[in-house]
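WARN retry 2 of 3 for item q-0093 after timeout on previous attempt; input resubmitted unchanged.
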Amino acid sequence: MKYLIDFKLFEHKKYTLEELEDAAKKYKTKVDFIENDYRKYIASIRRGEDFHNQITSHMIKPKNFTDEELENIANQYKTIVEFINGNQRAYDATRNRGKNFFNRVTSHLTRVKHKNYTEKEMEEAAKRYKSKFEFQKKEGSAYHAAKEYDKHNKGFYDRITAHMDKLRELPYTKEKLEEIAKKYRTKTEFLRNNSGAYTAAYKRFGKDFLNQITSHMRKKWNDIDIEAEAKRWNNMIDFKENSPGAYGYLLKHPQLFSKLTAHMDRKLENWDEEKIRNIAKNYFIRKKFREQAPNAYAALVRLNKTQPGILDKLTTHMDPPITDADMREKAAKYDKLADFAIHETEAYYQLIENPALFHRYCSHMNDYIMPFEM
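OK item q-0093 returned
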């Protein structure tokens, strides 16, 4: 799968206060600032709330419309499209007031039907763009019409987009992903600031690799949790490598460290494929294997570094695919895509394999975005 991501977004640059202030002066609203210069907007927030508020103080604040104001604005237009293009904020506010209010206020507006494109029209539309992403973003109706038409006329979409820039797959290696993950303190921060790397870690190397490179991320430990975590490990080296958050916490509490790690061996246990297989075959869910046999699982992860593929080989009988009904149910629980991805990782990435279902089950989320080409 190829990701529609501008690699420049992931380049880290330190902006001066003057650069951020000059950038903010160009825009009348925060929405314009975000849409046109996202990196500088985020950089201004990181400089502190006072600084951010200062350089955006001239910007127009979002208006809270009354029902009467929304009705008067809607009456200025003849079609839904004119309403959207003429006053997007008022349109969004009208929709947010509920279906009954929206239908009443816009009952006089004409609903424009989707256009039926001819082959020539779709081809002409495609010629106007240099990339598939730009085609989809700026002329989505023609783009999706071409994709739909291609289902019955194989090769049509590829032909009309052949001149466009080819989308490259993210050039992430395990080492690069580990390096990137170290910059973040939580999974939420990782996902929101570099969704491409987060996604690549899971898609290319699996959930276990993602858990491995994010294992250092912040978790609030209490006495009960830290004791339970320490009991899972029989070997100090495995504990340090596979639960660095807990290990680091105990290092800051020497007396507790001595007490909770007294049962651990200080030498690395010898594991071979047959020994691990005999344990792995007793589990049918990978999460249970990882939690209930952490030493065997950690040994398998180490072995996978020298024998790539053995992890998948010994766990192939685990984790049957999540059903569509389960994915729909899981997605419905969340209002934010980031939260869904973090707490229902397997369902999230299984949906990514099916763009239509991803859109159907996740489009209600506040931060919804399609991170791939449909």
